[in-house]
Write a structure and sequence with these properties.
By secondary structure, the chain is mainly alpha-helical. The protein has one domain. It has helices at 8-30, 38-54, 56-69, 83-99, 101-107, 109-127, 131-146, 152-156, 159-173, 181-197, 209-227. The model is unreliable at 229-238 (pLDDT under 50).
Amino acid sequence: MSSLRGPHHCLGLASSVTEMVFRYLNGRCQAGGGTLGPADLEAARTHVLGSFANGFGFFETTYQRCMDASAATAPAYFARETILGTLLFHCAQKAARPAFPNQVQRFGEPWLHQFFGGVAQYIRQKVCPAADDRLIKIYAELASKLGAKLTVSDLMRENGVKRLLVECVMPMVSADAPDDIAMEVSDAASEYIAAQRGIPKPDISKVTEQETRNFLNWLPPQLQIALNHGRTAEAPKA
């Protein structure tokens, strides 16, 4: 999943331009005649590059304007409202495919992204309201370093991302999870899928409580593998 849409492309361009400017300034300083030394320039360069993550909203807005102007239609998997669902898809799709065979066979991978978008919606409403902001902060810091080369795998290697995903998912699959958790997740996912697909009730693209229960049962080992997490997650209630 390389070359995904997202503000990291703008951050990469800004970082490249900044590096070019400071190389020029460094050359001028080495040629003599100025009062700034290499240490001064390096401190300024570090400060400018470090400020990009804090000003991430500017890059988000700029990128969205570019996409609107070019009428881009590719999925925005790294947008603020989709990044959690993207990461959930990356680490849990192998649990979802056998749990929802009819939907996956009929609608394919786009449906899986819609399902995990619904799971992400449940998480931000019931488990971790700050999940999006925390992920975007890590994404912005990585984007400042990697620019357009940033991938989902780069994010998944970050310990902060791993910890957050465990925090988001464990309440749904732990041994003491509420009995009605599958129904709540199923309702949230179906509502999100319906909104994304513009469909009425009922519809084959939605999910049932039992299908969701199967997904939650198969999720812990897949999560452990995807995150390379050191301890085995507790098995959820049947």
